[in-house]
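Margin note: ligand = magnesium ion.
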Amino acid sequence: SFVHQKCRNVDVPYLGSQVYRTSVPDDLVKWNRDWADYAPPNYTDKKVHGQPWADPEISDQKFNPNWNAVDGKINRVSFVCQYTFDPKTLCPINPIGRTGLAGRGLLGRWGPNHAADPIVSRISDDGHLEFVAIQRRDNNEWAIPGGMVDAGEHVSQTLQREFTEEAMNGNIDKDSLKELWSDGKELYRGYVDDPRNTDNAWMETVVFNFHDSNGLLKNVDLQAGDDATALRWIRVDSKEPLYASHSYFIDLLKSAHSK
Ligand code: RP5
Ligand code: MG
Ligand code: MG
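Resulting structure:
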């Protein structure tokens, strides 16, 4: 079964910090494997505290979320399973297993943090399937231009908003891509092996493909914006390393187009 890798990296400190994860061997990822002395560092970035997009501390008396449910405007349902809780800290437990770090790191929500990933694709003039990729400002890796689902936002809005922000530098020329957005196909929904994941907070996403069969993007100025510092088309067969689980999502894109 699937074990996460990128959120167990011990070669570098956790993004934006000096904190190193406890090294978790493959065979001790699952929580049901005994590891009596497991005591990972507890780390939540200061930037997270007090943000409108972030939860309070678990111990905060005023914080009474509806776990495993749509909690007002926040989706706390996991695509993976009904998550459980650490009996000592009462924090939600990563359904894939240990990551070597407790707390939330850079993530705002305890439990699932929901994102959406728009894969905008086309066939190049010389016949290759390719997609719009951006370079992330936080760690310079190439990625699908995805982002977090805002409170109360519908996933279909997140997909368009994030693409517009990160790959069109905010140019709101909505109508030119109307046809593209109306014909999305879901490729994936579930856990993301994101390097920011912790034992108590993790990324989940919905991945949609918007394939430009009609050359609509020829009339659109693609340009990196917001959290993206560069943009380019990447061929699906380039084997180029991508952020988090994004290579897997591109494999799904490839299969969807080879049918
Ligand atoms: C990944 O992080 C998701 O697949 C999505 O691409 C991204 C969302 O986070 P930000 O881009 O907003 O940092 O796990
Ligand atoms: Mg974004
Ligand atoms: Mg993003």
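The radius of gyration is 19 Å.
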